[in-house]
Amino acid sequence: MVLVHHLRLLPPDFGTGDVPMRRAHEDKRLPGFRILNWHFYFTAMLFVYGRILSHQLVNTVTSDKIFYKLVSKLIKYQMVICYFLYIAGVMWFILTLKKKMYKYQFGQFAWTHMILIVVFTQSAFTVANIFEGIFWFLLPASLIAVNDVAAYFFGFFFGKTPLIKLSPKKTWEGFIGASVVTTISAFVLANVFGHFQWLTCPRKDLSTGWLLCDPGPLFKPEYYPLPGWLSRWVLPWKEVAILPVQWHALCLSLFASSIAPFGGFFASGFKRAFKIKDFGDSIPGHGGFTDRMDCQMVMAVFAYIYHQSFVVPQDYTVEMIINEILRSLTLEEQQILYTKLGQILQERMENSLHFFSLG
């Protein structure tokens, strides 16, 4: 929905009353210009999502040897293909330049690239988070939604002090109230999501089977004893179980409530600049569904960086090394590697037995 909304490719003078008529008039004089925009779109899509694919992923999709080799070659030369597709698009653009329309064409060219960068940056990091485990997509996205809705309600009922001139309806009361609600929600939601194995397992292939894995230490509860007076007079239990990932969720909530809202402020400035009230009207009084996506790009990027920096173990494990090998080798090369490793291990075992027999 966000992609379709943004791909309208607004011209630089958007906001004036005669824009729709002018756009239709200009587009009629450039019959192939919209096709060029879609050419850049599909090139960007191939570049971003082609990098996510690997031989291991392709191997789970098809068992056909010819198709597998074809796709493997496309993946190997994916960057070269994307580069020349982009260069072809630039040449196409230059060859279609017309007198008295340079400003409009270059404006559309700039808008196309800006929108593709914004949209595909968001979607690429979002897809990367999903491959690390649906948990790392669902939790950050939920925190943004909770923060946005909580800020609206706290601002509506208690808001008195303006937060930022760019968005007069945003208040300090709404900002602080939403921060508290987001923090509590992060701690609770991380515990709830963390108990579903299919949410926590990383996706290593494109198969459709149900996700089953060892959840790892992050999703295994640790027990903390409660103070005696608290367990005696307030709570009926002596200890509480907390998943380690809940502490990471607090860090995500801090970002979602303090930094990510600036994505919404950016969208507010954009709407003010082009005289747009809301990006949609699917939620009466609270903007459209698209308005709920203002901060998702910022949050998706942070969630990925945080996960790679503070959650993923920095030491190489056997599983990580095997996964890296499988991504780099074809199916035939994997079989050769497996055979050679078996031969090496067998020789070492024979040498060890021979040494012990001599001893």
TrEMBL record:
Pfam families: CTP_transf_1. Pathway: Phospholipid metabolism; CDP-diacylglycerol biosynthesis; CDP-diacylglycerol from sn-glycerol 3-phosphate: step 3/3; Lipid metabolism. It is a multi-pass membrane protein. PROSITE patterns: CDS (PS01315). Its main location: membrane. Keywords: Lipid biosynthesis, Lipid metabolism, Membrane, Nucleotidyltransferase, Phospholipid biosynthesis, Phospholipid metabolism, Transferase, Transmembrane, Transmembrane helix. This is Phosphatidate cytidylyltransferase. It comes from Gossypium tomentosum (Hawaiian cotton).
